[in-house]
Write a structure and sequence with these properties.
The structure is a homodimer of 193-residue chains. Chain A has 193 residues and is an alpha+beta fold. Helix content of chain A is 51%, strand content 21%. The longest helix of chain A is centred in the last third of the chain and has 26 residues. Chain A is globular.
């Protein structure tokens, strides 16, 4: 637990204007959880009552359609995950699962409200973070509409090289919207260049 | 100008906790602009120095790739538009153009900072709005990865019926990622059901 707290304190000291004392106080009052690899944190049909700030590890969101998993997104260290419907009375379309052993700070609308009350500076920090999240999602949409699977793979190797090493190839393939065999072909073509 | 201001005051009284007086004060201090249909507000390569809150009309973001336009998103009344790279020194990949005559509140990082200083309640209002934007983008990504063009068209008819009436068919086709002829076929198939 101490290790998890210090991960979070490192994160906050990097991304917020808080003093060391405030940071320990915030870290103390939050719920930080450890999940084992392959834990399914949320299932389609569940209400999305929690959001997550990943301190260590990797989460994957996916849907199951016609019996097949389609990977929507991978989330890694320092990324926050608030799936569609978070804090609303709408069941999730998505599953959320741990690709690796994962440590995350848990948020709920109540915790967020309480924290913003006690530490108003957190609101502008969240706003900043939220804007970065939007930027990321928008880029994903642009890339998806504009680029071929091969172009998206090349972009991933540049922008998120760790991802390609850390996630199973069949999940990466479904993230790129191709069959695993097509991903293998793409990798062979690129390695020859 | 009076008409534009009252559009904005209506918007704020619906979405914020401000008094009538505060709302007029905010509306007075903001830059509200009118654009003619087909105005290109931003070109690829430009820095993204402004964001927009649409009071009336419709904007479209698109990329040009291999000489072809691909529509990324349509934005209508009460939606906010902050294209990727907003407020950063990164040139835009996207164009932003008016599909209709459009009235929008203009934001810049400086205006946002000034407003949040003078009206701290605006920060949590923005955060709320930003979270809704994220929800929308996430749903777009999920739909895009999960659904066929026909399924996405049907979803649009339910969730954004106005859009289908208001935008040119070739733009709608490129938004759905299909050729205009395929969109016509989709429409014929659905109308027979």
């Amino acid at each position: 637990m101490d290790g998890m707290n210090s991960d979070f304190e490192r994160f906050l000291s990097k991304h917020s204007p808080f003093t060391k004392e405030q940071i320990s106080e915030i870290a103390e009052s939050l719920d930080i959880r450890e999940y084992k690899k392959k834990t399914v944190i949320l299932r389609a049909g569940d209400l999305v009552t929690e959001c997550y700030l990943i301190l260590k590890g990797c989460l994957r969101s996916y849907v199951i359609k016609d019996g097949l998993e389609k990977t929507i997104e991978f989330y890694m260290e320092e990324q926050s995950v608030a799936l569609p419907g978070y804090g609303k009375q709408i069941p999730s379309e998505l599953f959320l699962e741990c690709v690796e052993d994962t440590v995350a700070v848990i948020g709920t609308p109540e915790i967020e409200a309480k924290m913003s009350n006690e530490f108003p500076e957190l609101i502008s920090a969240s706003l900043k973070m939220t804007e970065d999240v939007i930027d990321n999602y928008q880029s994903t949409i642009v890339d998806y509409k504009m680029d071929s699977a091969e172009e998206r793979y090349i972009r991933l190797t540049k922008e998120r090289p760790g991802l390609i090493q850390r996630v199973p190839q069949y999940q990466l393939a479904s993230y790129l919207g191709v069959q695993p065999e097509s991903l293998s072909r793409i990798r062979r073509r690129i390695s020859k260049k």
